[in-house]
Design brief:
Elements: H1 2-39, E1 46-53, E2 56-63, E3 70-76, E4 79-80, H2 88-101, E5 124-130, E6 136-145, E7 151-156, E8 161-166, E9 194-201, E10 206-211, E11 214-217, E12 220-222, H3 224-235, E13 241-243, E14 255-264, E15 269-277, E16 280-285, E17 291-293
Antiparallel strand pairs: 1-2, 1-5, 2-3, 3-4, 5-6, 6-7, 7-8, 9-10, 9-14, 10-11, 11-12, 13-17, 14-15, 15-16, 16-17
Length: 306
Amino acid sequence: MANTLSIMRNSKTLTLLAVFALLVIGVLVDRRYRATEARLLKLGDVSKGEILFQGKRARLERVGQKTPPHWRLDDFDGAKAVDSRVNDDLVNHLLDLVRAMSDVTASPLDPKSAAEYGMKNPQLALTLAWETPQAGQEIVLFGNRNLSGQAMFAFFPKRELLVEVPSSAMALFEHKDARDLRDRRITTFDTDDVEDLVASGKCGSFKLTRDGDRWLRSGKVVKTETAEHWLGQLLQIHYDDLKDAPTTAAAAGENPVCRLELAGRRDLRESIELFKLDGTLWARNSRLPATYHLPPGVLATLVPPN
């Protein structure tokens, strides 16, 4: 009988201990869950960003509430940006990628080993901030590729999360450098905006006019594909450097090369002057604040369409 009572007491004690242990585990799991949830705060409506790419830093701010977002460049590589245009497509692609990665809550990789995966000197680093729906900030570092080359490592230091990202998700950054975070075009027009273009100087003297679904060059019909291909090449000329300072007048020693005057829908107008200075080709746009250095071979794209 005594043994039976002893066994019952021990059984009750073990039961109580088990219940207590479960309660403790439950509290610890709940605390850990809450802490994890705090770290995994979803990206809000990002309004500011800082991008470090290949050693150069760009600080951006969202303009308006358009979808997809439109961005303004505040400073670039430590200097105030006079030309504040941003490559919106590239920046928004990066934001979409981070949003998709934000759904990841677990990884087999040890975050304490982040430095071994290239996070001491990341190829690309983002700091994102937002005010709605509640104020928050996220930091993402992109490091080395894995051994197969099919994935890249990314680290969320605030979340203590180290993950792999498919290399294909970073394809837009292939063969690009920090300058590509900016809108590097020397015009504000897209092909569909152009109604008339008047050229003069060494690039020829002619007028290209949209006439319904066709194009006329100085009154003669030009194949639509030919005209629009030429316009597309012209409007996609990218500068390779710029004087990021206000420029409104010609400098001493400039040699004019070509002048383009564009007119478009919604009374949109601009003129582009190409000139040589110290043996290199530059461009100035009436609607843009900087002066843009052009790469060799650009003049070949100005040969008028037949």
